[in-house]
Amino acid sequence: MEQEKKSGAYLPRIEWAVLAFLVLMALGAVFARPVENFVHDLKMSTVSPWTDPPRDIVLVTVTEDTLKQFAYRSPIDRGFLAKLVTKIAAAKPKAIGIDILFDQATEPEKDAALKAALIEAVDKQGVPIILAEADKSDGLSDKQSAYLDAFSSGIGRGLVTLLRDPLDGVVRRMFLGRQTDEGWKTGFVAALAEAGGGVAGNQATGDKNEQGSRDLVYYRQGNAVPFAFTAYPAHAAAMLPPAWFAGKYVLIGVDLPFDDRHTTPFAVPNGVTAGTLPGVVIHAHGLAQVLAGDRVIAVPTPVVWLIGLAMCAAAAWLAWRPLPILFKPIVVVGLIAAYWAAGIAAFNRFGVDVPLVAPSILAAGGAAFSAFLAWRRDSQERQFIQQAFSQYVSPAVVGSILKDPESLRLGGERREITCVFTDLEGFTSFSEKLPPERTAAILNAYLDDMCSLFVEHGATLDKLVGDAVVGFFGAPVDQPDQADRAIALALAIDNFSQDFRRKMKEDGVSLGVTRVGVHSGPAIVGNFGGRRFFDYTAIGDTVNTAARLEGGNKYIGTRISISEAVVALSSGRVALRPSGIIYLKGKAEGIEAFEPLNRETMDPTYIEAYCEAYRLLKAGDEEAVTAFSHLVESCPDDPLAGFHHRQLAQGHRGADIRLSEK
Q: Are β-strands 177-180 and 183-186 bridged in parallel, bridged antiparallel, or unpaired?
């Protein structure tokens, strides 16, 4: 088993682990993006820290009520826009941003009036104005681009591009500008913020290495709806006090049901209708972000990889641990939940946008992969245990070990066991009288049934030594009823051996009796041996005592000898009679031994008389001589009563029996 572990049968090769992680990372990147977008939108609209944008942003919107005044809807009446610009510019705002694209001519007089109003506001009143700009990459034709350039000459411009996510069309990033053949073109929001003096140009546009965009901050109200910037309908602007525009950033755009509307993160908690905002409102969010210096802190890609690796490794380690199978997914889900809680808290407190989905997919995938390897490891361990112990113990015990491998600690441990030692009397001399083939057949038949009895009663087979069979209860798994099992096994062995002797005698073969010794006590149990060979066995005085109790049967005439330690652990369901207090060679203290009785064949009256005679014997009462004389007369075939009768006749008193042999 140890060699298998060292050779890598249990742990994957490092290159396979790396390959598995890379595959998981690729799958996470592919499948996580849509879900990650959803989670980002939910965080942005419900738990983001941005709830208080700058208050110096005012919207003037062209609504359906505004358009009802004109003969046509599009383009918007430029004479009206000229008056609107003049009115707002007179109030001295910080800057005016017009989110309306002037890419084609309308009525010449009105076009000229609007151009004049724009020039006057910029040159004479000193009000910065930024006009919406687009170019060929936005779909404008050469003619439209030429007209836009001519109309906007002498006035500030900014690209009004809105960056829609190609997966779902949601606007999540703010456009800063792009590099063109004509040089760098600044985005509408950045140009307006710079024109109004809110930020320097490099602060507004950011580092051009940002690829012309950054995460867009959406401001929200406490109930997860978009922040409501101050907005006035364009047709009512002429009647408003100039102070309402003074010192403000004024954005002029449209707020129409079907024009220039875009899906935002607020669609997740509020639905598509409430989560779709006019372009001018989205620009207002972007402008507020630039002015306030608010930014979504995106975690760098290498850090994302490290987070994914850490999550995958942590989940894999948890899944690899020898935890209950149903507990593993709970632990892994708990790990992922804790990571999500930390990620949401980081976004809520600091605006740090930690990817949640991809690392979670990696964690789940790593846990699943590791769980598979753990299952394979455990399966191999189960196979090892099953193969190793199926030769020793019953299937029930093997099953118990498989359910709880921790109950088995190889290498030797102290356990309380009950050892059963058997021996077939006179087999050595018997085998010399028969041909080897005949001897082997008889011995194999005998041992096969004997071993089956051990297994059937839940014992662990220790060893076979010639015709002797040794086994024990209480290891490798605990058996609280080990004493009862051992007594039942001893009786089953006695019944089998006596029946086996009768069958052999019918075949002309005379076999001796099978003697059994049973003792309970501590022992060291485990695999003992060398690297090439080991044996699961029990060692200690308990085993030796059981063996010597078995040998003591020959001396006192019994076939089964059970120690008082076994009797003390038993439930008392089996009838027993005391055999005597046996002093094993080299032992200062005696062990009171008992003989189990078969209730179906025993004579209760005789057993009662024997127990009374034994009581007298143990007490040293002279009446014991008479009592045992009566027993021998009534049942001359009882070898134990005959043994005590002979002992008394030779002058021995008491129940002590001293064995001279080991």
A: antiparallel
Q: Give 158's strand partners.
A: 132
Give the span between the Cα atoms of 631 and 654, in whole angstroms.
17
Q: Report the alpha-carbon distance of residue 591 to residue 581 in Å, rounded.
A: 5
207-243 tens-digit pLDDT: 544 458 899 999 999 888 999 999 999 999 989 999 9
Q: Which amino acid is at 645?
A: H
Closest CA to 343 of 39, 20, 4, 8: 39
Q: Give residue-wise pLDDT tens across range 428-468.
A: 777 778 888 888 899 999 999 999 999 899 998 888 888 99
- Please measure the distance between the N-terminal and C-terminal CA atoms of the chain and give it in whole angstroms: 38
- Cβ atoms of 134 and 188 closer than 8 Å: no
Q: Which residues are CB-contacts of 550 (< 8 A; sequence separation ≥ 6)? A: 421, 422, 423, 515, 516, 517, 561
Q: What are phi and psi of 63, to 5 degrees?
A: -110, 180
CA–CA dist 84, 656 (Å, integer): 126
The length of the chain is 662
Q: What is the DSSP string of 455-514?
A: HHTTPEEEEEETTEEEEEES-SS--TTHHHHHHHHHHHHHHHHHHHHHHHHHTT----PE
Report CA 486 to chain centroid distance, whole Å.
43
Question: What is residue 209's predicted lDDT score, i.e. its pLDDT?
Answer: 42
Sheet holding 171-175, edge to edge: 163-164, 171-175, 213-215
pLDDT tens digit string along 263-321? 999 999 998 888 999 999 999 999 999 999 999 999 998 898 898 889 888 988 888 88
445: three-class secondary structure by DSSP: helix
DSSP 121: I
| SS3 (DSSP) at 621 | coil
**What is the token pair recorded at 125?**
């009143």
Structure tokens at 544: 């030796």
